[in-house]
Amino acid sequence: LEQARRPSVIWLSFQECTGCTEALTRSNTPSIEGLIFDFISLDYHHTLQAASGAAAEAAREEAMHENAGQYLLLVDGSIPSVKAYSTIAGISNLDMLKDSAAGAAAIIAIGTCAAYGGLPKAAPNPTGAMSVEEIITDRPIVNIPGCPPLPLAITGLIAHYLTMGSMPELDRLGRPLAFYGENIHDRCYRRPFYDRGLFAETFDDEGARRGWCLYKLGCKAPETYNACAQVKWNQGTSFPIQSGHGCIGCSEPNFWDKGGIYDSV
Ligand code: SF4
Ligand code: F3S
Fold first, then answer.
1. Which of 53, 58, 219, 260 measures 20 to 30 Å from 71, CA to CA?
2. What is the pTM for the complete model shown?
3. What's the half-sphere exposure (Cβ side, CA atoms, 13 Å) at 226?
4. For ligand 2, atom 7: residue with the closest CA
5. Residues 252, 224: contact at Cβ < 8 Å?
6. How many domains are there within the chain?
7. Given a cut of 50, is residue 261 above it in pLDDT?
8. Closest atom, ligand 2, to C-alpha of 248
């Protein structure tokens, strides 16, 4: 992998919170430094690139021109169908996505906003937020949902693409099976308590203190597919359920409206 030509990567950020980039910077296999210095040429990224203003836009144009048909396009954030809601350098998000996608070899929609619309698409969806695959239909697209996604899912997919030259096997929602093929509930360390009918009823009762199942507190993991229970966060330290709060289904379509805990309690 280290001998391979460093492919050009253009990362577009639209209606997002920078949480996906924050997640990426927590990656340890490979680290963000290893990724951008050894494996890819990150030619455009609002948060990580040194250039700004006209120089930043020139870098995107140059990367698209020099690597036409070969660059990898990464997108985080949803795209407002009402163009005026979000522009970059005077270009609407919608136009920038279409322009950048035209010469891309493949697209990775990072985070639930880019993959399915996410939080900006929640009712009443004032910007008319859309996902990448609702707009681009003529390029291979892989979804890496999560709010934010697991760092390893982002870097793991990029590493797979660089080494294999193709995208991995996906589920029906466009997610790599390697990271989204298993149900969190089936991998949860609290599962024995669920099976025995032992549930926390409030966040501070005896059951919560003893680590019992959080299902009655709205845990959405039985309907959620992600690798949080195996991979965890902060280099394998913990994940939402381990910190005492049920999963809110952040990697599933229709998050937030159908992922919030309060619609089931
Ligand atoms: Fe399943 Fe959630 Fe209970 Fe874990 S806490 S066993 S994922 S319902
Ligand atoms: Fe999201 Fe649930 Fe994992 S809330 S981070 S999919 S445990």
1. 53
2. 0.93
3. 33
4. 247
5. yes
6. 2
7. no
8. 4
